[in-house]
């Protein structure tokens, strides 16, 4: 059973999300019945491989069985095949998958998650194949976390190249994935001033896709993120739909400035419609390390740690 169109429309109307984008693309919510819980996620695999561990039960209940995103990059192999397999499995289950494209050249400006495609053309080929892998299946696609917020670390020519690549990515989803809601990453609530981010989103082609996403892999509350999203909308000049990563924002950002596996963070609201933004989604996989720092010292970025997962469950 799928989400009734009238319920979808009512939910979006209540959140104030009247936008040209809503009429321009297929609605994946109407074609699915809830969000897809990835059986191949790092937490799910760890639980299956460690059934006797004392943390297996809590991680299974609180994280591994919850709907969340799958991230795709060079580790995914043939990205068209990988994306097709993931979205096909979700389609068979009548669930809505969330996918993250994370392969922009110069990714993370040499930080903990450094990497990305080796050249602009390699990225164009990769993101085109990514969109091909989704095709007509319903999906949500998150385009390149941090890519716009980190423009400041690039030189003038490199900045324009990145904007060109993000425009290309947005166009690929618009052209090849008609039942996908694609969202450009818009940073977090305190990183980039709202007017500056709105300008960057426009330059990256947000008008050609469904909207933008906030708080990916970060900890700001949904309320704070919603306030910021509305300020970005005001600067854009139209109510672009936006979603918020709620995977680790149950305790909010806190008073410290630590962003890498910090203490006292907690799981947030599970993937759902509404609550301020268009949707709250678990985009960062809870328990996957931000890098070898904080509570995750010695755990590379993207690697699952049951200890990190347990900290998020306990909120300590």
UniProtKB/TrEMBL annotation:
Coiled coil: none annotated. Keywords: Carbohydrate metabolism, Cellulose degradation, Disulfide bond, Glycosidase, Hydrolase, Polysaccharide degradation, Signal. The active site is at residues 146, 290. Its EC number is 3.2.1.-. Residues 1-23 form the signal peptide. GO terms for molecular function: hydrolase activity, hydrolyzing O-glycosyl compounds. InterPro entries: Beta_cellobiohydrolase, Beta_cellobiohydrolase_sf, Glyco_hydro_6_CS. The keyword GTP-binding does not apply. One of its GO terms (biological process) is cellulose catabolic process. Gene3D superfamilies: 1, 4-beta cellobiohydrolase. Belongs to the glycosyl hydrolase family 6. This is Glucanase.
């Amino acid at each position: 059973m799928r989400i009734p169109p009238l319920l979808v429309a009512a939910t979006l109307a209540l959140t104030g999300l009247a936008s040209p984008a809503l009429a321009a693309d297929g609605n994946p919510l109407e074609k699915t019945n809830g969000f897809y819980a990835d059986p191949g996620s790092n937490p799910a695999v760890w639980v299956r491989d460690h059934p006797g561990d004392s943390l297996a039960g809590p991680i299974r209940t609180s994280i591994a069985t919850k709907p969340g995103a799958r991230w795709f990059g060079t580790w995914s192999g043939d990205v068209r095949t990988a994306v097709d397999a993931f979205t096909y499995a979700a389609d068979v289950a009548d669930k809505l998958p969330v996918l993250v494209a994370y392969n922009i050249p110069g990714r993370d400006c040499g930080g903990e998650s450094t990497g990305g495609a080796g050249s602009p053309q390699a990225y164009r080929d990769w993101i085109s194949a990514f969109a091909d892998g989704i095709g007509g299946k319903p999906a949500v696609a998150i385009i390149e976390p941090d890519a716009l917020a980190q423009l400041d670390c690039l030189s003038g020519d490199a900045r324009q190249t990145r904007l060109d690549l993000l425009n290309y990515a947005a166009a690929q989803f618009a052209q090849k994935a008609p039942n996908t809601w694609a969202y450009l990453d818009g940073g977090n609530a305190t990183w980039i001033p709202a007017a500056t981010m709105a300008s960057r989103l426009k330059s990256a082609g947000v008008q050609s896709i469904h909207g933008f996403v906030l708080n990916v892999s970060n900890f700001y509350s949904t309320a704070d993120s919603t306030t910021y999203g509305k300020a970005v909308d005001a600067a854009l000049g139209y109510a672009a739909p936006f979603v918020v990563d709620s995977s680790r924002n149950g305790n909010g950002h806190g008073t410290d400035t630590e962003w890498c596996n910090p203490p006292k963070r907690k799981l947030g609201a599970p993937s759902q419609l509404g609550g301020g933004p268009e949707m709250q989604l678990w985009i960062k996989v809870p328990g996957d390390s931000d890098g070898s720092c904080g509570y995750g010292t010695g755990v590379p970025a993207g690697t699952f740690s049951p200890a990190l997962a347990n900290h998020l469950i306990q909120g300590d």
